[in-house]
Specification:
629 residues, alpha/beta, Nitrilase/N-carbamoyl-D-aminoacid amidohydrolase, Rossmann fold, 2 domains, seven-stranded mixed β-sheet, 21 helices, elongated
Length: 629
């Protein structure tokens, strides 16, 4: 046996908070060493935080990371644990995203990231340079390049995030060169259902390359991008450990690296593939000998036996039901996004929500309360403030729903009517228009803008974080008001489709039994800016709207293809009506881009987001000729 204990850590970092980030990592490093961890793995860009984006173009942003890396090495010098952590370096005019190997007070080597994602929310090709096969340079006296590291427990291969996502990544040549344990430092954002993809990918890579893979992911939210943390340990395709997500800390497990080498020797396909690779001129990756640097302590490690004491029978099923897993992941991610924005900006003292008595503002409040309950479990309501601002179109039903849920949550609640202000603004608009009539749409927008103005005024004087409450579906088609309900400091559910909003509220109603949720759900969804307003009547059924959005913006289908797909998806709707819905959606979507590019920073939870600077980069000024048959 050759036992090794691997610790996988997730640290909630802040971009630019070098000392604080390292302090948090040191706390976990000391705990790992106290628990006899042989190898402690941290995430990508641990020191600088991620994503730093164009900040890496400032020399000072890069230069200030190295002293913190040295401090980490210095303060872990007495620990008999090898650590790998993420750092950015500037080398001969290049910015490199590296994995740093640290042991016994020394930085032993730097391995740069080779695959730089420049798609979706990522822009690394804009700022960083790539490592490459055979790279062998020196940075500040430290080897920098394509290296492996030999310790008394085995041969280690560091890599960074995207390197594992490419089938043509460095893992192949490194395992052919003798790497037994591949450690991947990652900053992979939360996306719905993506944890299953990570799990399957790591199992595939570990089986393909006949190695043990340790994967540690970043945690926390920076600028609306949410990292769910967690990590995986997989040995030659068999899952060993999956760590908790959405919480800072580390988890560890023991593996026998002799098992990895035995399985490699038994795998004739792997052996023949390696022979072919060498015969075709594949160059072995050099191994840095670190045997004399550190003597790890592994005498207390016990063979990794199953907790249920059977190698043949399955253990207890720990998986959550699919509905619970989906809803809890979304709610955890959004609550983390709200909390980290609130805390890391250090500009706010309280969180404010303008309640309409409808679904969107209710879900936003529940998400904010979820965060508040975590940090102030005894009195979460003390961190929140809710307002209800009725006009002549507001119903007693929605006011009652808003009062009920705030009472159940213990959130301070104020009713601030806008009727008098609405009359004044309406009179001013009539004066400005002269002979022209005020449109019904203008009357609706006046109400929305009055509410937003009051929320901003409250925010300015109370240091309050004003949460924007609109959902993705209505934002996509411009069913929102610039200067009104589109406004806020942080858009919490701006990337949550309306059907998902309702799904989450149904789940929360079942889970909590809150009467306030039941009262909101009992009334058809509508903004109450005019008499008897129902959103689906003014737009289209929300399932069809969300399907249009996914197929058009996500799958990039043209309108004719949308009609074909939706006709089979919704056979109960006449094809002629489907065509009307599609034409309406495409027209509204393209003419509303100018609106949603003005919306506040939003939280990302999927690959399809309405954010021009991130996921869906659409020109504001565009014609729709290409959408016609």
């Amino acid at each position: 046996m050759r036992l090794i204990k691997v610790g996988l850590a997730s640290v909630n970092t802040t971009v630019g908070a070098f000392s604080r980030n390292v302090d948090r990592a040191l706390t976990l490093a000391r705990r790992m060493a106290a628990e006899d961890v042989t190898l402690g793995l941290f995430q990508e860009q641990l020191i600088g935080g991620y994503p730093a984006e164009d900040l890496v173009q400032w020399q000072g942003f890069i230069d200030h990371q190295w002293p913190e890396l040295e401090r980490f090495a210095r303060e872990t010098a007495a620990l008999s644990t090898v650590f790998v952590l993420g750092v950015a370096v500037a080398h001969q005019g290049l910015r490199l995203n590296c994995a740093a190997v640290v042991a016994a007070g020394h930085v032993l080597g730097l391995v740069p990231k080779e695959k730089l994602p420049t798609y979706n929310i990522f822009y690394e090709g804009r700022t960083y340079s790539r490592g490459y096969p055979g790279m062998a340079e020196v940075h500040r006296g430290v080897p920098l390049g394509d290296y492996l590291f030999r310790f008394d427990f085995g041969v280690l291969a560091p890599e960074v995030c995207e390197d594992i996502w490419s089938a043509d990544g460095p893992q192949r040549r490194r395992t052919y060169s003798g790497a037994e344990l591949v450690v991947n430092l990652s900053a992979s954002p939360f996306r719905l259902g993506f944890v299953d993809t990570r799990r399957e990918l790591l199992a595939t890579r570990a089986a393909d390359h006949q190695c043990t893979i340790a994967y540690a992911n970043a945690l926390g939210s920076n600028d609306g991008i949410i990292f769910d943390g967690g990590g995986f340990l997989n040995q030659n395709g068999r899952s060993i450990l999956e760590t908790p997500r959405f919480q800072e800390g580390f988890t560890s497990a023991v593996v026998d690296l002799e098992r990895t080498m035995r399985l490699r020797a038994e795998n004739t396909t792997w052996r023949s593939d390696r022979e072919e690779w060498v015969a075709d001129g594949g160059k072995l990756v050099p191994i840095l000998d670190c045997m004399g640097i550190l003597q790890t302590r592994r005498e207390k490690l016990a063979y990794p036996s199953p907790p249920h004491r059977s190698f043949f029978l399955p253990g207890p099923d720990q998986r959550r039901p699919a509905r619970e897993a989906l809803c809890e992941d979304i709610l955890d991610a959004l609550a983390l996004g709200v909390g980290d924005y609130f805390e890391k900006t250090r500009a706010f003292k309280v969180i404010g929500v303008s309640l309409s008595g409808g679904r969107d503002s209710l879900l936003t409040l529940l998400i904010a309360h979820r965060y508040a309950k975590r940090v102030r479990p005894d009195n979460p309501g003390s961190l929140l403030q809710a307002f209800y601002m009725p006009s002549r179109y507001s119903s007693d039903t929605t006011r009652d729903a808003a009062e009920t849920i705030t009472r159940e949550l213990g959130v301070p609640f104020q009713v601030i009517p806008i009727e008098e202000a609405f009359d004044r603004e309406l009179a001013v608009v009539k004066q400005m228009l002269g002979d022209k009539a005020v449109t019904h749409l203008t009357e609706q927008n006046i109400q929305a803008r009055l509410r937003a103005q009051r929320m901003w005024n409250w925010s300015n004087s109370s240091s309050g974080l004003f949460l924007q409450t609109g959902n993705m579906s209505e934002k996509a088609v411009g069913y929102t008001t610039i200067g009104g309900d589109l406004m806020g400091a942080l858009a919490v559910i701006a990337n949550v489709p309306k059907t998902v909003v309702m799904y989450l509220l149904d789940y929360l109603q079942e889970k909590t039994g809150y009467e306030g949720i039941r009262k909101v759900l009992s009334k058809p969804a509508g903004p109450e800016l005019a008499h008897n307003q129902v959103g689906e009547e003014e737009l289209m059924p929300f399932p069809i709207l969300d399907a249009c959005f996914y197929l058009f913006a996500g799958e990039k289908l043209v309108p004719a293809e949308l009609v074909q797909a939706l006709t089979s998806m919704f056979p109960e709707v006449e094809p002629s009506q489907i065509k009307v819905y599609v034409e309406k959606f495409v027209r509204l979507f393209l003419q509303s881009i100018y609106k949603w590019v003005q919306s506040p920073l939003s939280l990302h939870i999927g690959n399809l987001d309405l954010d021009r600077e991130r996921a869906l980069q659409m020109p504001v000024v565009t014609a729709s000729d290409w959408t016609r048959d």
